[in-house]
Tat pathway signal sequence domain protein
Amino acid sequence: MFIVLRRKFFAFTSAVAACAAFFCLPAAAADFTCPYFSLPLTGDWAQQRMQPGSVPPNTFATLFASRKAGEGVLITVIPSDKAPKEAAQIMANNYKQQGMRVIGNPVQIPGQNAYRFAYVSANNKMHAIVFISGNGKHLANVSVLGRHGTGGLALLKGLSSKEDKLFPKF
């Protein structure tokens, strides 16, 4: 289970986050909806197309980007009954093994079954804030990519989950 989870969730998000895909040309901006959430896209935020084959089977992933903010938001959902606390610690350890500088251990978001941590790439060029949450059926990983993260966090305030407790309250 650990190997499968690691391959499907953590290595995937690391690879996508590491490639600054949010500098690609955006798809047409509009409100985004999927089976797990809906998100109004404000300003110049737009959904980015994922490369075919870049998402493992049974995994949902999408990337949002803003050229103006210079930030991206990667949202990944996988089927898993793993506890968010355990998943967040596994992910933080995985980033450390890849040479990232994880800033502190995952911290629980007060009043929620969700955890967050931040990391910086070895060359100090990529910064991210990672949120891990779950509801016993799915785990959600929301990574806000960018030096400050303020634009991405502002965007996420509009996120509306379609599954109870799948996403943290931003």
Notes: Helices lie at 2-18, 84-97, 150-156. Residues 2-161 form a domain with the Protein Transport Mog1p; Chain A fold (CATH 3.40.1000). The longest strand covers residues 71-79.
